[in-house]
TrEMBL record:
The lineage of its organism: Bacteria, Pseudomonadati, Acidobacteriota, Terriglobia, Terriglobales. Pfam families: Peptidase_S24. This is Putative Peptidase S24/S26A/S26B, conserved region. Residues 16-79 form the Peptidase S24/S26A/S26B/S26C domain. It comes from Candidatus Sulfotelmatobacter kueseliae. SUPFAM superfamilies: LexA/Signal peptidase.
Amino acid sequence: MKPSPLLFDGKHAVKCELASEVLRSSGTLRLRVMGWSMLPAVWPGDTLVIERIESGGVSEGDIVLFARDRRLFAHRVLAKGSPAGDSTILTRGDAMPQPDPPVGDRDLLGRVVFILRDGKCIEPSKTPRFSERALSAVVRNSEIAARVVVGVHGMRQTS
């Protein structure tokens, strides 16, 4: 039997709040990725190592973790700004068509310092290579392509 969507959303929200609290209190968090919004820099199943950071320590190209609507997002910083004296950053998932609404200081949780994949520790690049940008563009413009890419990647992982 499938869990009810409301039950799943409630459990997911509690997990996100707990992860946020752990990062705020200890300064470091490991978080397993479920989505594909950051393909190909971050794949489903990767584990992100995140360190707490204030918006002043963030620069363009960083991958940051932020909370919104009781969910967590790890997206790339496109720009920093401060409209009306409030410090904000503009982010977008590499494989997402539109930028996120601006992220304020209150929602920013940390910066991804390492990606753990297949037993390797990868330092995230601030500027994706041409091949990564091309794959992001394909995935950004086609959900079918995203599903195929994630499926092929999953098959490679199990063989």
